[in-house]
Amino acid sequence: MLKNYLVLAFRNLVKDKFYSLINILGLTIGVTCGMLLFLYVSDELSYDRYHEKASRIYRIVSYITEPDKINKWTSTQPPLVKTLKQDYPFVESYTRFFGRGRTMFRLGERRFYEEDVYSTDSTVFDVFTYKFLEGDPKLALASPRSVVLTEKVAKRFFGDHDALGQILRTDDTTAYKVTGVIQDVPKNSHFTFNALMSLDGNQRNADGWGGFYINSYLLLSKNADVKKLEAGFPGLYDKYMSSIFKRMGIHITYQLQPLTSIHLYSKFDGETNGDIGYVYTFSAIAFFMLLIASINYMNLATAQSARRAKEVGLRKVMGSLKGALVAQFLTESVLLTLISLLSSLILVAALLPFFNQVSGKEIGYLALLTPKFMLIGVAIVAFTGLVSGSYPAFYLSAFEPAAVLKGSFKARGGSFFRKALVVTQFSISMVMLICTWIVYQQLNYMRNKDMGYDRDQVLTIDYQDRQSQASYNALRKSLMDNPNIQSVASASSPVSNIGGRVIFTVESSTGMKEMAFKPTQIDHDYVKTMGMKIVQGRDFSEEFPADTTNGVLINEAVVKRMNWKNPIGKKIMLGTVPADGKNPPPTAEVVGVVRDFHQQSLYNPIEPLIMIYRRANGVMHVKIKTQNTKETLAYIGQKWQEIYPSRLFEYRFLDQDFQSAYRADELRGQIFTAFSALTILIACLGLFGLATFTTEQRVKEIGVRKVLGGSVTSVVLLLSKDFTKLVLFSFPIAIPIAYFSMDKWLQSFTYKTDMNAWVFLAACALTLLICWLTVIYQSLKAALANPVTSLRSE
Q1: How distant is the alpha carbon of residue 133 from its chain centre?
Q2: What does residue 65 show for φ and ψ, rounded to 5 degrees?
Q3: pTM of the prediction?
């Protein structure tokens, strides 16, 4: 019986080659995109799950509540996890990561700069699971001055030679012994590293509760009471921190974040992660693409009902039961889906490298052989084959044989259903079109928004530590001798990544008050080099030597927060006053106010910033002219080596830093755009097929109209108007859905574009244009045909 169904199904597919091709093409595109999006979503959901104890690992995050704001940080104080381990038996282990940032290693005369280097507890490999290629995880960081490298870094340092036991020296000439090499950290991790170093004595024994500068993780025992642990956090404040923070009106508490939820659910200051919203969005796109492809099949199958009516009537007269007919039509749709699935598997394999490039993923071909991927293939066949075939199967099998064979049969109900499906298709397509438009508007807004400084042609060179004034001045003087270099300045951090907060004692309307502000150290050329604007007072200047000890600049956000009407001359103590009142920090005065500028990406609000004058700092910014860029860079490198012969010269352009902050969103935007376009293409394929069939059904009517004097234009309008009405009907359905969806999405941005009415009007016009372009070929073909041909049999 099954063989008979398959033979008949294959014959029917071959018989109607044109409609079969449209259905197979639409389903292939839909299934291919659905599978690629499944791989993307699956990768997003897999973050950090490769750790054997992932379900028991928690990150601790801090909530610092000031009288006028709440700060949410992923960092904690060093003694926190040690204290929790002592107080709660179900805390099985812990580990901490102290960020070292960009670190230079020496191997003999060779030097290497490495990003993402951390100092960590020796328990790190008890908590997290990393595969060791060399060394013992239990002993790797147990000894002082040990370092564990990733495979990529070990090969860069030592080639194919064994790394274990080798000695590396850091920039401060401290010797570290390589005690382990691990496989590169998988990309589906919420944070990655290139090297882990053992803690030095000060880090290991740090017991101060005033500084938040490490990331802390706990490994809890099975069936541990997480709520009990969180309930004890307020007691930690009372016991260890109230003496430090209570007088400032600052309260601190913590929250435990499950490791496996960090990537998709964590939204903390300075953190770049995924977003569960995109997982839902791409899952919905995959579903809708399959749905639209299924709608195409349903539309064309019901539209061709008159062709299949006699077949159904004859089979019923010959004794075929309704169930057998339903099974036959479902077999046809499942066969169609299987053909599309096989085509899709080939396309997925071919497109995977390109998809990885566009999405920023590293999905391997082995992902196509996993049981989960195979299961999704079976699910697609079941869903698409049965859903798309169900209505035509039950609709066609319900025909009455007597009416069909007498010639008095008229299909009922199919027309309205087809119209509803077309409206559904174009409503979905239009929603995606509007959403794509607004996503790109927002990305363009972020790229072009005034950041409050000039990022063009500015080099950032990281010293890693504060330089002596003499060496910095010598390099600066050499660089300024080049006419292609406009300005040179130094700061304690890059302008696009000023992080951290410290407590200052600030003059307020009620006296001196301790409050947390972002600090940065700059020299007198910084404001000019970065193209910033002084809106009140003056800039730092060498004409005022006292600025180095008793002058500060602030931004407008400080003025707003302090509610100062005249900020110039306001006092700011560079630190907190000790409880005993002895040895208070130096007091400075505000000498100028800088127009607000973004200290981080546009995901973060502009924060109150205090700028302290220091002549030589850890980061140098160099503003160069657009002409002779290559020669200018070579000149800067040469002068760098003359002043710092033992350091590598490495730089990056500030606008590259800026673009990298939005790289993940741009990649998602590209994916969204590509699949939105393909969704519209699938809808148009169905519309093209339906227009072709409709034209064929009305060919004699068109012939009569032409004989009676009907023009080509009138015939084209006649055939197009029905589809135009359906597309127009989709507008009031799509616009509210798109508006509320994008309004919610834009709420996640601190700075966002406006949703202008013209976007919706333009989307409506474009959708209508796409509709007309889709049907106009068949309409013109029918309108230009010779009526004699269509009326010859009459």
Answers
A1: 32
A2: -100, 115
A3: 0.82
